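Question (not urgent): is this output format expected?
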Amino acid sequence: MSSNKWLVAIAVAGAVTLTACGGATEAGSAGQTQQASPSASGQAQDPAAGQQEMPKPDLNGIPDVVAEVNGTKISKEDFTTAYEAQFQQMAMQSQMMGQEVDQAKLKKQTAEGIVGTELLIQEAGKRDLTASDKETDKALDEIVKSNQLKSTDEFMAEMKKQGMDEAKVTEELKNQVMVEKLIAEEAGDTKPTDKELKAAYDEAKKQQEAMAKQGGQAAEMPSFEEAKPQLEEQVKSQKEGEIVQKLAKDLRAKADVKINV
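Got this back:
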């Protein structure tokens, strides 16, 4: 399920985000994994290519306990893993646009995202949703494949570089499986209707035509039948994302949450 790859996916991909409540949704649309990117350590680009040095994430002043969610503490370590990945993605985007990352805002969004994820994990636990070893292994295989890595060992090595040992990775994968079960339970049947697929297709076609009018290079639009499988995944993910956001918002309204960044 592409919209629900949590901290593990974020850490390895250095990419996207957590679906959560409120401000967390501004940080992204919950964790669609991408191929692993270069480190966010501020490594300089080739000056001859005319590229700027990548900025570094500012982790000064991050408290040992970044947030508390119904008594569960979110550690500085967990926050740092997620924030560095978020920052890397935002820094690349901002650099292309000639802007700087608003790190204060991004820190708050990242913290909100982690809080939202923790609320979903807690709710999954309350509903006695569990993750078997087989299900956890399957989730691991999917992430390895989606990041175009050669093996599980290569994945674990990448995670270790980012401060997550095998036990921590396994814990996060189990949480991921539990949350995916929670979303499936909450969402029910999200199979798109032909009417919804046609509307999504027409919208994509309209956007492509607008791009062409503005002089942009737009690829030729496939037929509706050719695009149908991708449209089904897109509409299904959108429906599930909306359900996740509503659930997380409802859980947040009833939760005891304190954020310290």
